[in-house]
Amino acid sequence: MITRTFFLFLAKNQFVKDKATKWGPKFGAKSVIAGETIEEAMETVRKLNEKGLSATVDHLGEFVYTKEEAEDAADYCLRTLDAIESSGVDCNLSLKLTQLGLDVDRGLCMNNMRMILDRAQSYNNFVRIDMEDYSHLEPTLSVLQELRETYTNVGTAIQGYLYRAEQDIDALKGTNVRLIKGAYNEPPEVAYQDADEVYKNYLNMIKRHLQNGSYGAVATHDHNIIAEVKEFAEKEGIPKDQLEFQMLYGFRSELQEEIAQEGYKMRVYVPFGNDWYGYFMRRLAERPQNITFAVRGLLSK
């Protein structure tokens, strides 16, 4: 049986990454990646908007190790924000701090983030800091805390499979947080391994954040969780404008439209760019049955 661990191993395997990249994103990834350029991403977002869906775009890439790479990534984020503004689409920006130099120099990363947030603020737009693996959790929260002393248009994500999720949620009261299960292969010392325990902790985290009066972006494709969150919000008197649902581009499109038609904000996470491999492998790790994407991609070549 193809396992989650197998795909997470492939996500970090440089040899397989090099080979897959040569095959191109048509290797299944075309189903979940909105092209390679900013222009292609904006066209995808425009089509989503026409269906009543909001979006957030992410230029794929992470773990850069030079100042020049980090500055290039920051410049790309700025150009993406410019494109969002000029095209008039309903869209936020998502990014990773490692892409902006967190592992190179914290000061470099902070400078890049301030430039990006200044640009986003001038457009009245919002920037989401994606959460990465556990080793980057504390550094990410530290950067966020410092940024929020100046900026209100920035948030992050918290992963429900971590034991500390509810503790972090309480510390982020008043922050716009994407609430996710988590997609990295974390050890039992820090994360639940049993699916039922993850499910329970994830739901508790969502409910706690909403009860705190904070804005929550519930990111899941699980219709059971979505139904329970709706029921909980109605019971607790939590208004629809205090939460949104989020799903990944290419997944459960019909359900996305149904949620939007019910009056909830439905935001689609739209990744684009050349560095698609790690993202694609983590999506397969979450749902190994999605290997059919790769098969379809090969057959359509």
Automatic annotation (TrEMBL):
Protein's recorded name = proline dehydrogenase
Which pathway is it part of? Amino-acid degradation; L-proline degradation into L-glutamate; L-glutamate from L-proline: step 1/2
Entries under InterPro entries matching the protein: FAD-linked_oxidoreductase-like, PRODH_bac_arc, Proline_DH_dom, Proline_oxidase
Q: Could you tell me which Pfam families the record lists for this protein?
A: Pro_dh
* Residues where FAD binds: 131, 159, 181-183, 220-221
Q: Which GO terms describe its biological process?
A: L-proline catabolic process to L-glutamate
List, separated by semicolons, the cofactors it needs: FAD
Q: Which GO terms describe its molecular function?
A: nucleotide binding; proline dehydrogenase activity
Q: Which reaction does it catalyse?
A: L-proline + a quinone = (S)-1-pyrroline-5-carboxylate + a quinol + H(+)
